[in-house]
């Protein structure tokens, strides 16, 4: 089975892919962007895909939501990966000599207290693993990279300081994708809908939410994205705590469509902790 995931090597996306698809018979295929992963699944280049959708600290990853709008894929799973950020250094470096810390801006933001305590300058890279790779190639003893333990292993770096993030509850939620539904959807307990209103009117979102409330459906995630047709018009991602097979969720979809809204069921799944 071919599995598409977001590169480069050593990212949290790769770690999530390796943990979720742990069967050694799988062929792991790395892509440069989230759109590329979605396209690979949509066009049949890959049997499965895994993409980040939400970080506990930074919030929704809009490249994924926008990609879901534009690609015909099915969400069949959800995986939660705890995010542990460490300070990596080249072998032989001393923690007290570090004057620069390299990483992607969100990772640096999540380690602000540590970098302030170190009185170190920060330098931005396109990914945590990219910073780790650059550090490994530079051989500098006065610089460090904020990245994962996987990146330390891949690029032969030491972990000079573990768990340097400001918030211990950090995690990233990933969606597992396929082209079409497979497996037993009757065992799922969450579903994601994309609701595109056909007209804008006062209280529009409240009307939509009231449909779920009246049917006693708990919503675990709501996100709005612009329709890109007119300023101030939006479509809504809504995650319901019911499987797509549930009678009340089916009723909610029917009511929303009767109101004239376009409803697309993006998937139905269960949560997995990695």
What are the defining features of this structure?
elongated, 16 strands, 29% helix, five-stranded mixed beta sheet, 274 residues, 9 helices, alpha/beta, seven-stranded mixed beta sheet
How would you characterize this protein structure?
This protein is α/β, with parallel strands linked by helices. Helices cover 29% and strands 33% of the residues. It contains 9 helices and 16 strands. It has helices spanning 12-20, 34-42, 62-70, 105-109, 112-118, 128-138, 149-154, 204-214, 247-258, and strands spanning 2-6, 27-31, 48-55, 59-60, 74-82, 86-89, 100-103, 121-124, 143-147, 158-161, 171-178, 190-196, 219-226, 234-240, 262-269, 271-273. The strands form 3 sheets. Strands 1, 2, 3, 4, 5, 11 and 16 form a 7-stranded mixed beta sheet that branches. The protein has a 5-stranded mixed beta sheet with strand order 8-7-9-6-10.
Architecture blueprint of SSEs:
Elements: E1 2-6, H1 12-20, E2 27-31, H2 34-42, E3 48-55, E4 59-60, H3 62-70, E5 74-82, E6 86-89, E7 100-103, H4 105-109, H5 112-118, E8 121-124, H6 128-138, E9 143-147, H7 149-154, E10 158-161, E11 171-178, E12 190-196, H8 204-214, E13 219-226, E14 234-240, H9 247-258, E15 262-269, E16 271-273
Parallel strand pairs: 1-2, 1-3, 5-16, 7-8, 7-9
Antiparallel strand pairs: 3-4, 3-11, 5-11, 6-9, 6-10, 12-14, 12-15, 13-14
């Amino acid at each position: 089975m071919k599995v598409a995931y977001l590169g480069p090597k050593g990212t949290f996306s790769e770690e999530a892919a390796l943990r979720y698809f742990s069967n050694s018979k799988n062929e792991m295929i790395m892509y440069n962007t989230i759109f590329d992963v979605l396209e690979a699944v949509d066009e049949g280049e890959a049997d499965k895909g895994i993409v980040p959708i939400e970080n506990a600290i930074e919030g929704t990853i809009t490249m994924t939501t926008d990609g879901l709008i534009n690609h015909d894929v099915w969400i069949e799973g959800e995986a939660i990966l705890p995010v542990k950020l460490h300070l990596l250094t080249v072998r032989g470096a001393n923690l007290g000599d570090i004057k620069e810390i390299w990483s992607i801006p969100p990772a640096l933001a999540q380690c602000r207290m540590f970098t302030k305590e170190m009185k170190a300058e920060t330098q931005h890279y396109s990914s945590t693993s990219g910073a780790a790779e650059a550090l490994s190639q530079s051989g500098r003893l006065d610089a460090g990279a904020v990245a994962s333990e996987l990146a330390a292993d891949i690029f032969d770096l030491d972990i000079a300081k573990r768990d340097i993030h400001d918030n211990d509850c950090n995690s990233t939620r990933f969606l597992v994708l396929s082209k079409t539904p497979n497996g037993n959807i009757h065992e799922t307990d969450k579903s994601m809908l994309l609701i595109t209103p056909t007209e804008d009117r006062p209280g529009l979102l409240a009307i939509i939410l009231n449909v779920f409330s009246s049917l006693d459906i708990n919503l675990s995630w709501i996100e709005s994205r612009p329709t890109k047709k007119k300023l101030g018009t939006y479509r809504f991602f809504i995650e319901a705590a019911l499987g797509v097979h549930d009678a009340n969720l089916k009723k909610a979809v029917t009511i929303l469509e009767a109101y004239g809204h376009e409803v697309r069921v993006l998937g139905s799944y269960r949560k997995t902790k990695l």
